[in-house]
Amino acid sequence: MPYISQSFIDDLPNQVDIVDLINKRVPLKKSGSDYRAPCPFHGGKNRNFAVNAHKQFYHCFKCGESGGAISFIQKFDNLDFVEAIETIANECGLTIEYDSNTNPVDPRIERYRALSKKVGEFYMAQLRTSPAKAKAVDYAKSRGISGEIAKRFELGFATPSNKDLLLHFEGNEQEVADLKTLGLVKEGQYGDYDFFRDRLMFPIHNTKGNIIAFGGRAFDEDAKAKYLNSSESVIFSKSRELYGLYHARKNSRSMDYMLVVEGYMDVVALHQAGITKVVATLGTATSTEHLQILIRTTNTIVFCFDGDDAGRAAAWKALKITLSVIKAGATFKFLFLPDGEDPDSLVKKESAKAFEQRIAKAQTLSQFLFAHLQAEVDFDTIEGKTLFLEKATGLIKSVNYEAYQQQLLEGLAQVVDQNIDQVRSIAEQQAPPTQEPPPVYVDMEVDYENLDEVDMSSFTDDSGHSQPMRKPVVKRSNMKALMSKMITLLLNYPTLADSTIEVRVRTIENSQVLLELVRSAQMDEDISQTELIKPFQDKQGIFDRLKQLCTLEPRLSEIQAREEFLAILTAIENQQKSEQIKSSIHHAHTLEDQQKIMQGILKGKRKT
Length: 608
Hints:
- The two termini are 40 Å apart.
- Helix 17 crosses helix 19 and helix 21 runs antiparallel to helix 22.
- The protein has a five-stranded antiparallel sheet. The chain has a five-stranded mixed sheet with strand order 15-14-16-17-18, with helices on both faces. Strands 8-11-12-13 form a four-stranded antiparallel sheet.
- By secondary structure, the protein is α+β, with helices and mostly antiparallel strands.
- The relative contact order is 0.06.
- It contains 26 helices and 18 strands.
- The chain is 48% helix and 12% strand.
- A hairpin with a 4-residue loop joins strand 4 and strand 5.
């Protein structure tokens, strides 16, 4: 794939007007030799954000954000470097110059995308020609999916056979190897087999329309895993993709709002009804990456959830993530459906017009915030109102957009019928909401040097970037926290469990709970958190702790979660090994015995 030439990149600032580029996103006003506006990155009302047309440069005198045109588009539109250049070029009518001699950063990317397209075509062909297609066709018709909509979303069919996809590509060793890497073909005890079998297939597209992964819907309503996604890869990350976004942009006249639903079928069914501004998360909770993508797509984001307890709990998680992301111009709303209804069933029962009226009347974020917290306390008592104030101000403090934070505090003052200054005083006394610490380990003091060091050079932080880190030494007092972290990761990413992990966990002391969770996760690849912790219901203390850990959602991709899980497991194994060595030395009766133990350790280290 040709990449953008360096000469074009270097000359781009000379061909664009940074003032015009930024003014399309942030209204600027002339102020002396500069243009000024409230900062789009930290919020506030003061015009601390300056743009200099002569220097083609922007700078905020409060938060320090600064840079040129490319930097601004990267940060404001949440794009990578190449996407930012392409966006600027499109807006300014420039033709990008490519350098065909430049090698791609990762040569696999184009290969994987090309293969994914072929796989999508294979599944579509099976929906037309497979002898077993009747099941898929009947299911699609029962859900009211027309041929036009099936074609729009490139729906397909994975046959009941466990090797049809594998056999289709068996003539190309590289493609078979890539199918395994993408998780579309699995290696089993009795040979390789197709991951998706007997399912309606939903290709997952990126914003440019490339197929990057697949989702499969079982036909049997009682299936343990109703929906399955293909594995994360270098071209697919669940926390950074939204199902239907490409189709929403392609088939909508405007982007005055975006509806966020929970399932593929909801997206497809709403398109069938003529409601096209709709996306779904890919079997994960809403992430900050999802929100940033939505904010640069539209000004109004409407979350749509079932009205039951599970739906409201999911909505509350989305709200808490939203608070730290919301910025100028963005509005978030929450739509709760009647009991027993989902978007698919409700739009068929009521009509598209009635459904769109529900969208228009959805609760604002502030309404949902206050109503949810009021329902958690006895609001008619002083104690309950005090607790309400503490919870509300604690959450409001996580809002980075200053103007909105102040409006929330004023709204809170009206709800509790108090002076705004009193509410601000309470807010100032509140500590910021506690957040799960990032997966960083610090050096601990130990008596026995270097034996339990673990190479953590590839460890990642919450942003997904590789961090150069010191080799950690895990202290015994920290073991409980590490075990809790592993359990949290497994509860959020059950696919971490496999037979190798089980063997390793089995050797860890006091790991019975984790071991049982690993075994349960192995039996069902798509097991829910509720089902995963259900066997512990009779052990109240453990069950309550697991429920607490379920609420902690690491903002990691599946790949990052696996790296972190394995890093912690390795650290614990090394600590345990170190303790065993120390114990052996301590119990050695003679200096000669101690020397033999040390020689054995050194010999083992040389072999590794």
